[in-house]
Amino acid sequence: METTSPKSLYERLGGLSGITAIVDDIVDAHMTNPAVKSRFLPLKDNPEHFAKVREHLINFLASGSGGSEQYTGRDMPTAHRGMNISNGEYMSVIDDIMSALAKHNIDDESKKDVLFIAYSLKETMVGK
Asked: Which terminus of the chain has fewer CB atoms gathered within 10 Å of its CB, N or C?
C-alpha cells in the first residue's frame, strides 16, 4: 500500500509564489484598513525599507510554514517593541490576513493553521 505524506502548510499556501502573492495582498489590505493604515502607510515613504519589510514578511511566513527560505529579521517581540499595538489593531491585522487567504482560495484547515500561528504571537506584540 502506498502512502502519501500530508502537504506542509508551505505547500498548501502555494509555495514561495503563493506566499508572495498572499503577503502582497495582506500588505495592500493593511494600507487601506482604517484601524492600522497609519502604521503601514509610512513604509511607502522609504521604498528600500518597504522592500526589506516585504521580504521579511514573505520569508517569515515561508520559513514558519515549512519552506526552506530563511527568515533573518528580528524576533517578533523585538520587532514590535515600543509599538504599543492594541488588541483591536491586532485583530484588524488578523482579519486582513484571513481575507487575503480567502482571496487566494486557501482551504479552511490551512486558514486555521495560519490563524493558530497568528494567535500564538499575539502576547508577544499586543501592548508591548
From this structure: N
Residue 118 neighbours by CB under 8 Å, 6+ apart: 93, 94, 97
pTM over 0.70: yes
Distances (CA, A) of 64 to 2, 5, 20, 36, 90: 29, 19, 14, 24, 19
| Residue 68 domain-assigned (yes or no) | yes
Structural domain span for residue 70: 12-125
Average pLDDT over residues 36-41: 93
What CATH number corresponds to the domain at position 95?
1.10.490.10
Domain-embedded: residue 1: no
Q: Could you tell me where the DSSP H helices lie in the chain?
A: 9-12, 15-32, 37-40, 47-64, 76-80, 87-103, 108-125
